[in-house]
Write a structure and sequence with these properties.
Blueprint lengths: L5 E4 H4 L9 E5 L4 E2 L3 E4 L9 E10 L2 E11 L11 E7 L7 H11 L5 E4 L13 E2 L5 H6 L5 H5 L4 H8 L21 E4 L2 E4 L1 H9 L6 E5 L2 H4 L6 H10 L1 H15 L4 E5 L7 H8 L5 H22 L4 E4 L13 E5 L7 E5 L7 H19 L15
Parallel strand pairs: 7-8, 7-9, 7-12, 12-13, 13-14
Antiparallel strand pairs: 1-4, 2-5, 3-4, 5-6, 10-11, 15-16
């Protein structure tokens, strides 16, 4: 979108586990082809235009891979003040505050009616409401409902206490933030059983009305720890995770027939230093890259296979710096060295830089959808093509 930098980091779109062993070329009439990325910040004159982007990967034997894509620049909005609501169902990547960056971008671009909605209050005064919960998956949003030990202890009625215990082992609350993770905002417990209640959630977040957009940022927790090669991984995902994703979207669609759902592709993760900091030698960048590429490709196939014009793939994974985009800190080079260096210290969670880059990519998609003169009040651009 005009004014927002678009990044295509080569290691985020080239699925070798050793992308540093290859040389990359990008060809486009706009932007710059740098060592690690192609980047482009559109101007106002670029609004509504398309540009052809070709990215090649080479080694000393010759051309290894090539891809051609279309860069679509958002048009100016016809009615920027129109109220447009967006709900977010996500996981711990929301801790990077990408949703807040989306809001800042939209307001700065003149979309004064852009209104994020959600059941979680923002952590800071300049944040926005959302429904992002650490550790959550598609299945968790439809099933998670647990109780804390303090809740059980404070119930006087014995039958009710036993009923709550039947949900599973009560969780001991040590930190206040743990309470937010106990139960999905989509699940209720009534008459001794759990059930999904989307209208109840809509009442809570948007006065009972379906939002214009629901942004879905999930998947990392579902694939983390999987082992295997690409074909095997994709088969596992089709048989497991994507079935859960289908149930998730079916459930939401029943009560939100007019909402546009945006399913995000996800960043592939940090360098091996991030995995070493979090997991020692028990997990690694190599397998995680395979898992994330398999996930993003299955997301693409899933969206195309649903044949739902209001379910769109939202490209985000290409846009996050694989180094600066993840949490970094100063660490000693070794026990005997007096020198320190800046390293990745988190395997999968974006830094504030990565969060802002995610927010830029999401805002660009929203501006593409909301720009122009679409019959429904939104533009017709930005569909899967």
């Amino acid at each position: 979108a005009p004014g927002l930098e678009l990044n295509v980091y080569f290691s985020d779109v080239f699925d070798s586990v050793v992308p540093r062993n290859y040389a990359f070329q990008a060809y486009c009439e706009r932007g710059s082809s740098e060592l690690t990325r192609w980047c482009f910040t559109p101007g106002k004159d670029d609004a509504g235009k398309d540009f052809r982007l070709v990215v090649n990967a080479w080694d000393d034997e010759g051309l290894v891979a090539a891809v051609t894509s279309t860069v679509v620049v958002a048009q100016a909005p016809r009615n920027p003040g129109r109220k447009v609501t967006l709900a977010l169902l996500g996981d711990s990547l929301t801790n990077s505050r990408f949703q807040d960056q989306v809001y800042r971008n939209m307001v700065a671009a003149g979309f004064t009616g852009y209104t994020p909605v959600g059941s979680r209050k923002p952590a800071t005064a300049d944040g926005v409401p959302h429904d992002g919960f650490g550790g959550y998956t598609f299945h968790a949003f439809l099933a998670r409902y647990t109780v804390s030990d303090e809740e059980v202890a404070n119930i006087q009625d014995g039958a009710e206490r036993e009923q709550l215990k039947a949900l599973g082992m009560p969780v001991k609350i040590i930190h206040d933030w743990q309470r937010d993770l106990l139960r999905s905002p989509l699940v209720k417990f009534e008459d001794g059983r759990k059930s999904v209640d989307i209208p109840r959630w809509l009442d809570r977040i948007n006065g009972g009305r379906e939002p214009d957009f629901v942004l879905v940022e999930l998947g990392v927790n579902s694939v983390f720890g999987l082992r295997g090669e690409p074909a095997e991984l994709r088969a596992k995902l089709r048989e497991g995770l994507m079935v859960e994703a289908g149930r998730f979207f079916d459930c939401l669609r029943q009560d939100m027939p007019n909402t546009t759902f945006l399913l995000c592709t996800l960043p592939v993760g940090a360098s091996q230093d991030g995995f070493a900091a979090n997991y020692g030698a028990n997990w690694n960048e190599v397998q995680h890259r395979k898992n994330m590429f398999a996930l993003n490709r299955e997301f693409d196939s899933f969206v195309k296979g649903r044949n739902d014009p209001k379910l769109l793939l939202l490209p985000v994974g290409h846009a996050v710096d694989p180094v600066e985009g993840f949490i970094r800190a100063s660490r000693p080079v070794s026990a005997r060295s007096t020198r320190k260096e800046i390293r990745n210290v988190n395997a999968v969670h974006p830094s504030d830089v990565g969060g802002r880059q995610m927010g830029d990519a999401i805002a660009a998609m929203l501006r593409t959808l909301m720009g122009g003169d679409g019959a429904d009040g939104f533009g017709s651009r930005g569909t899967n093509r």
